[in-house]
Design brief:
The protein is α+β, with helices and mostly antiparallel strands and about 400 residues long. It has 2 domains: about 290 residues, no CATH class; about 80 residues. The protein contains 11 helices and 6 strands. Strands 1-2-3-4-5-6 form a 6-stranded antiparallel sheet, with no helix packed on it. A hairpin with a 5-residue loop joins strand 3 and strand 4.
């Protein structure tokens, strides 16, 4: 991009060029991160709900309601990694040097990224403030319904079904979970008395209508109480019995029992209420924490420029690791502040806004330090020292001795 192109197209040409470089890394990082997190959580949900009726329908609903949560987690990381990639690419190709030589300041180069940060901050307010509270409650409601939806008539080997006081387990099962070996059943009979049934094998079959399961048991024993109340031990070659499938339990409580289920407006309203659902400190720390996470996004370009400019070819690892540690420290400092505010150790306002101010000031200081000499910043000097230290350690390590030929 020459100075003539810059003058002909105006400053908007720079914006379009830089934003075009940013959009695909941002979409790619965000998509990969969210999909990876969802896949990992979906596998865990499948394991938890493996014995529940209509488990795949429940898992899909749960996964959909996890999307706002994981977008909120992944957005700062994806935005920073995309910025780091773009800035490192511009630095490697000497394009930043060319832009500076053409009269563009570092602030002007960073301007489109700052605008994207502001837009993502507004989007985060919507995600943190309104989408997450509703999706969190819906997730809990669906999980409550799934756990209490009853048995689905299939059993994995070694698993236990504890459904309304009845216990069923088997040592092994086929792939469909309907042909079992070494079966153990403990349940209540029609008189409310406990009975124990063991069998060498069993076949399960769901009856038409899906309300009961027929179990064909073979080579087993049945221990139960007789009419006089004494135990009776019955050996059988074949026994057919039915087990009802329980209906779903009542719905979960109304939304709002947890501060994380409240929107930003509801948090502020409850904090002013004389009888809030939880303590005022808990409400304020949650309110301030959501705002801090959203407002910090426009500061990420100021943090990414020093680290990206300091990461020359072959030396990107230390800069990216240091930036990741800073983001992790910021996130955990907010969580620590929220925890301390909830237990009353620190007032909510300083517990959240002091860490925010520290990290925001650090981002501004690092960016200002990159204005005069973009290639020589406090970060780049620290990265060079780390690289030199690692090189000295590697040189000091004993080298493996070469084997002499026999």
């Amino acid at each position: 991009m020459s100075a003539k192109d810059l003058q002909a197209g105006g400053l908007r040409l720079i914006d379009r060029y830089l934003l075009r470089l940013l959009v695909w890394p941002l979409v790619g990082c965000l998509g990969v991160t969210v999909v990876a997190l969802l896949l990992e959580r979906t596998l865990r949900l499948l394991d938890v709900l493996s014995q529940s009726s209509a488990r795949f329908g429940y898992v899909s609903q749960l996964a959909v309601n996890l999307v706002p949560h994981y977008i909120g987690l992944a957005l700062p990381v994806a935005f920073f990694v995309a910025l780091f990639i773009v800035i490192a690419k511009l630095s490697d190709g000497s394009e930043i040097d060319a832009l500076l030589a053409s009269g563009q300041s570092l602030e002007r180069i960073a301007a489109p990224f700052l605008v994207v940060g502001v837009l993502l901050g507004v989007f985060s307010v919507v995600v943190f403030g309104y989408m997450q509270p509703y999706s969190r409650y819906t997730f809990r409601a669906v999980m409550h319904a799934a756990i209490n939806a009853g048995w689905n008539g299939r059993l994995a080997g070694g698993a236990f079904i504890d459904d309304k006081g009845s216990l069923l387990t088997a040592d092994s099962a086929d792939v469909a979970g309907q042909r079992l070996t070494r079966v153990f059943i403990r349940r209540l009979d029609s008189r409310g008395q406990e009975e124990i049934i063991t069998a060498a094998s069993a076949d399960l079959k769901m009856d038409p209508g899906g309300k009961t399961i027929t179990m064909d048991l073979r080579d087993g024993r049945r221990i139960a109480h007789d009419a006089a109340g004494a135990y009776r031990n019955l050996a059988f070659d074949s026994l057919t019995t039915q087990t009802p499938l329980a209906a779903a339990a009542v719905l979960l409580r109304d939304r709002g029992g947890d501060e994380r289920e409240l929107t930003l407006g509801e948090l502020a309203k409850q904090a002013k209420s004389p009888h809030p659902v939880v303590s005022k400190a808990t409400l304020l720390s949650e309110l301030y924490g959501r705002w801090a996470r959203a407002i910090f996004l426009p500061f990420l370009p100021l943090l990414a420029f020093p680290f990206g400019l300091a990461s020359k070819r072959g030396n990107r690892g230390p800069g990216l690791v240091m930036a990741g540690l800073l983001l992790l420290a910021f996130q955990h400092s907010l969580l620590l502040g929220q925890g301390m505010a909830k237990v009353g150790m620190v007032p909510p306002f300083p517990a959240i806004w002091v860490p925010f101010t520290v990290f925001a000031s650090l981002a501004v200081w690092l960016f200002v330090g990159s204005r005069t000499r973009p290639g020589d910043t406090p970060v780049s000097r620290l990265v060079r020292r780390i690289n030199n230290l690692v090189a000295r350690v590697v040189r000091a390590m004993p080298k493996p001795k070469k084997r002499r030929p026999a």
